[in-house]
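Hey L., structure's done. Input below.
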Amino acid sequence: TLTPGDVAAQFEPSLRTALSVGSWEQALEIVAIVRAIDPVGEQVRNWAYTTAMQYGQALVEDGQVDGALTQFDQAATLLAGDEEANLWLETTQLYQAGRDAAAGAQWEKAVQHFESAEKRLPNYGDLFGRLTEAYRGQGQAAIEDDNWALAIEATSLFRERSPSDPDARNLLSQAYRGHAQAAMTAGRWSSAIDTMTEARAQLPGDGQVTELLSRAYLGRGQSAMARQDWTAAIEALQQGNQQLPGDQEIVAALSTAFRQRGIALEERATRNTKTLNMGMLREARSDFQEALALLPGNATAQAHLVQVDKILFPPKRIEVDISQQRLYAWEGDRLVYKFKVSTGLRGQDTATGRFRILDKIPMAYSRIWRLRMPNWMGIYYVQGIENGFHGLPYRPDGTKMWGGLLGRRASYGCIVLGTKQAKTLYNWAEIGTRVDIHR
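Output:
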């Protein structure tokens, strides 16, 4: 006498054949028969489980997810705790939830459900396409809601999954541009620049992105210029010029920023005409040169450069360095003479500052010191007494003073040169020649 299990086993070859060729109606009919023959048999339960799983997976591939859910639910019931059955059952439930959410344009929920499903079974049916479309829908909705951070995130994922879709590139560009425009409206120029820089890397060749990046750099620079923060403006516009070489608006704005900083430095440096800040003037000169390098022929920058050059490099000027006890004679920026000198002793110091040669006397005489001073050139007065340049002085007896002391302090306040050097300087300099004395 055959047992129920023996009878059911006679159907196994037919079941295997039906499963191998995907004859699901036949397979389900055989399962129904063997379960009726041996309802508690373990082998029969395994056959029923296998049939439900394979049929469910076939339904998933055919897009019949609702029917698949029934099969996976049955498989999970047949083998309680089976990980594979539960995996397919949960994934199908998530897929259904995502599909229903997408149908109602509930894109956040759709994305959450589809992403959870994809983490479980990445190759589940048409899940890849469903999630891709959910990203598209989420990105479009975020753009409409001006939720630019989410728009960028969603459209980036859409484009990553569908790189050849022109709509993906357009939506991503729109999201980036919306984010940047919102930042610029709020005056958050750095945020706009960062966004457009990233967009440019993601979307090379996108003219609208490049245009907005230019506007962001210009806006940041112009905002700084409105505050008269010329250095901040230059820094912003220089970055823009590096990122977008040849952008004429940025070039023009950068030239303006250099010019205006140069003018501000020039005004500060010349506020006190007796103590001009030469270092600041040199900085101003450099700024005017930068402005002209960017926009050659700019009349304002050129005029200021000429004016500063006249101060820095007059046709003739004399420089006295008290700390070095040296005199330098310049023609423009060319050194023509360098002489040792002796300036005033401590307590009778030679004055520092900016002066001009007031007069020239071939042989001056000091009643106070009873000295004759050859090649005299006066430069300033102290309590009614004029100090100036002269050669080694003569005592009443005709002997020269301080001959061996040139190169160190020795005089009563004047600037003393050797006899030959004093004559050379006397013949070279003119009344009105500028004299700069510093320590």
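The CA atoms of residues 221 and 229 lie 9 Å apart. Strands lie at 317-321, 326-331, 334-340, 353-356, 359-366, 371-382, 385-390, 415-416, 434-438.

-- N.
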